[in-house]
Amino acid sequence: VLEGTVERLDDTEGAVRPQTVDDALAIFEAYRLTLSEVSSAEVLVGDLPRDPTYLSWSLAATCLLTMRQRQDLLEAESAAVRLALVSDMLTREIRTMRAVPSLPATDVARNRWSPN
Questions:
Q1: pLDDT, tens only, 19-28
Q2: Count of CA atoms in the C-beta half-sphere (13 A) of 80
Q3: What is the arithmetic mean of pLDDT over 87-112?
Q4: pTM of the predicted model, to two decimals?
Q5: How far is the C-alpha of 44 from the C-alpha of 2, rounded, in Å?
Q6: Nearest to 60 by CA among 23, 85, 94
Q7: Which are the contacts of 113, defined by CB distance < 8 A and separation ≥ 6?
Q8: Tens of pLDDT along 37-93?
């Protein structure tokens, strides 16, 4: 039986720059297009919120991320930090999918893939 302790962490208040939201949306669109190419079908289609908090959680829930990445997003202290983290994660994921177009990087991470 797995057990754990949960502590609710409230986001720290603070304005998120509109450019941060725009950048996250642009990176997600590049991610979506790359994943669609790899999948040979259009995926993750739909409108995303512009509110930074909702957007950060929407991207975290929508994207193919490892459990460690998801935990990092859960522990992020604010929407701005979460958006920066998810943007970095998606950028790395895009690079990996382009290098190994047959599968998303989360599958590579689960299989301990090595370029050697």
A1: 999 999 999 9
A2: 9
A3: 72
A4: 0.75
A5: 32
A6: 85
A7: 100
A8: 887 878 878 889 999 999 999 998 888 888 899 899 988 999 999 999 999 999 998
Query: Of the candidates 41, 38, 39, 79, which has an alpha carbon nearest to the alpha carbon of residue 59?
Result: 79
Q: Are 85 and 72 in contact (CB under 8 A)?
A: yes
In 3D, which of 80, 56, 67, 81 has the Cα closest to residue 4?
A: 67
Q: Which residues, in sequence order, are CB contacts of 11 under 8 Å at separation 6+?
A: 53, 77, 78, 79
Q: Are 40 and 33 in contact (CB under 8 A)?
A: no
DSSP string, 70-91: HHHHHH-SSHHHHHHHHHHHHH
Q: Please give the structure tokens belonging to residue 39.
A: 């999948």
Show the DSSP H helices in 1-116 as ranges: 18-39, 52-62, 67-75, 79-99, 105-111
